[in-house]
Design a protein that fits this description.
alpha+beta, SH3 type barrels, Rossmann fold, 5-stranded antiparallel sheet, 5-stranded mixed sheet, 22% helix, 25% strand
């Protein structure tokens, strides 16, 4: 028996929702592309209902490098609840989002996207998702509602340190954001982290749990305002050297956060 409620769907004795793990069992009448996925394991990305009232389980495949590119085609697959088999071999662990943010055309502001690019060549533990959000602030705000336990924002963050210094920032609960940020409306193609977090808090409206948010920041050498006549592509030398340092720190951070999402991560800044 299959029943649906809100953003979850009951399959047998198991209620599936975002983050649930399943094995794919397409019907024999399915198309050849779906049949080729028979037996693959996947993670539920969403439970959706179409205009005709039919329930679809939207999944991303384990081992798919493009699973976190939500704007890409071919990385989200739709199955009926009868075509998925809950995987209960292990309880679901914490889920962590690593989000690179920044503008590729503003010199050291591209630090976040560059770190995400460096991380894609590394093997990430189960439950850790990584994505480059660039300057898509609204996309990130909505993604923060996706059931993650922790979100690590990777960004150029000036704090008066030596250029290239990498530091972990814990801004504290989202409820502590200033009132001005609460009233601000993020631009569709802008990335002010404070405004993005405020929007996520508004969207949650007390009905959805928000993740713990941390910032892995790097002291920039070249800071641009955004109104310069020319774009500047490429990181400065000290910030370029800090990309590998940040990638190494992320591997350590995610390991600690998977063990304890509320771990105390206060630590000194790391120079290049």
């Amino acid at each position: 028996m299959t029943t649906a409620s809100g953003r979850t769907v009951q399959v047998g004795d198991v209620r599936l929702g975002r983050g649930s793990r399943v094995r794919l069992r397409p019907r024999q009448s399915a198309d050849v592309l779906d049949l080729a996925l028979t037996g693959r394991t996947a993670e539920v990305d969403a439970v959706e209902e179409d205009l005709e009232g039919r329930i679809h389980v939207v999944v991303t495949l384990d081992g798919d490098d493009g699973r976190d590119f939500r704007t890409g085609l071919g990385h989200r697959f739709f199955f009926t609840p009868e075509e998925v088999e809950p995987v209960e071999d292990a309880p679901a662990g914490p889920r962590i989002l690593i989000a690179g943010i920044g503008n590729m055309f503003m010199a050291d502001d591209a630090f976040g996207p560059e770190v995400v690019g460096a991380m894609r060549g590394r093997t990430l533990p189960e439950g850790v998702h990584i994505a480059d959000f660039g300057i898509r602030g609204m996309d990130l705000a909505y993604r923060l509602l996706d059931g993650y336990d922790v979100a690590v924002l990777v960004d150029a963050a000036p704090r008066g340190k030596e250029p290239g210094t990498v530091h972990v920032i814990d801004p504290g609960p989202l409820g502590a954001l200033p009132d001005a940020a609460e009233r601000a409306v993020p631009q569709a193609h802008g990335m002010d982290p404070v405004q993005v977090l405020a929007l996520a808090r508004q969207l949650a409206d007390g009905t959805e749990e928000l993740p713990r948010v941390l910032v892995l920041g790097c002291e920039p050498a070249v800071r641009m305002r955004g109104d310069e006549p020319d774009v500047v592509v490429g990181l400065s030398e000290p910030v370029r050297a800090a990309v590998t340092v940040a990638a190494d720190m992320l591997e350590s951070l995610t390991g600690e956060l998977l063990r304890d999402p509320q771990a105390d991560l206060s630590r000194p800044a790391v120079g290049r």
